[in-house]
Amino acid sequence: MVTGYSPRPGGRLTSASTAHLTSYGRAAVAWRREGGRLTVDVAVPTGTTAVITLPQEGARPERVGPGRHRFEWALRAPRWREPPSVSLAPRPSSASDTRV
């Protein structure tokens, strides 16, 4: 059996994890951003292999065997900017405003 792991950190999340109990055992993945670094931990059940696609530019899928695996690297500055904030406060009404 081959399992696939493709963590995709983003937004304002600083960590996430998930696990699934397969017929071979527990498969899990977790990632965290901390101190300018990204760490991805993967657990591959006995009797299986995994293909891990890391969220690095130019990263190629990597095949690993059963056990626990850790991948860690420095984060680069994001290429995107935060969208502008939108105010949901009501507009002040004026005396000439006849809308209901």
UniProtKB/TrEMBL annotation:
<dbReference type="InterPro" id="IPR016007">
    <property type="entry name" value="Alpha_rhamnosid"/>
</dbReference>
<feature type="domain" description="Alpha-L-rhamnosidase C-terminal">
    <location>
        <begin position="7"/>
        <end position="59"/>
    </location>
</feature>
<dbReference type="InterPro" id="IPR035398">
    <property type="entry name" value="Bac_rhamnosid_C"/>
</dbReference>
<protein>
    <submittedName>
        <fullName>Alpha-L-rhamnosidase C-terminal domain-containing protein</fullName>
    </submittedName>
</protein>
<dbReference type="Pfam" id="PF17390">
    <property type="entry name" value="Bac_rhamnosid_C"/>
</dbReference>
